[in-house]
Design goal:
Blueprint: H1 2-30, H2 59-83, H3 90-118
């Protein structure tokens, strides 16, 4: 009975592992292999590249992305939490409060670090 229950899961796991691997190797059969100098150039909106392609980005751009992701997660979880608020137990509300506190501590840390970078 155990094998019969988990056989679809095993087949699904096998397909999810084999499909990308097979797609990767099959794509080698159809791709062009002709070497050209244009293919080795960095693509810049159809223009010829000027200068170095690898530049150093400032950390504050990554910080903005992290803060956006944190607020996005808070928004999604708060929407679900608010819709089911009346049916939640006190323990579920406490867990959500702890979750929000952890995320807000992360945002506070990021904003404090951002203030140090601007000075």
């Amino acid at each position: 009975m155990l094998i019969e229950d988990y056989l679809p899961v095993a087949i699904f796991a096998l397909v999810t592992i084999l499909f990308p691997v097979l797609a990767f190797y099959i794509s080698r059969l159809f791709r062009p292999t002709k070497k050209e100098t244009l293919k080795n150039l960095t693509y810049e909106c159809g223009e010829a590249p000027i200068g170095e392609a690898q530049i150093q980005f400032h950390f504050q751009y990554y910080m903005f992305a992290i803060i956006f992701v944190i607020f996005d997660i808070i928004t999604v979880f708060l929407m679900i939490w608010a819709l089911a608020f009346s049916g939640l137990s006190l323990m579920a509300k406490a867990y959500m409060g702890v979750f929000l506190a952890i995320l807000l501590i992360g945002v506070t840390y990021a904003l404090k670090k951002e203030e140090v970078l601007w000075i």
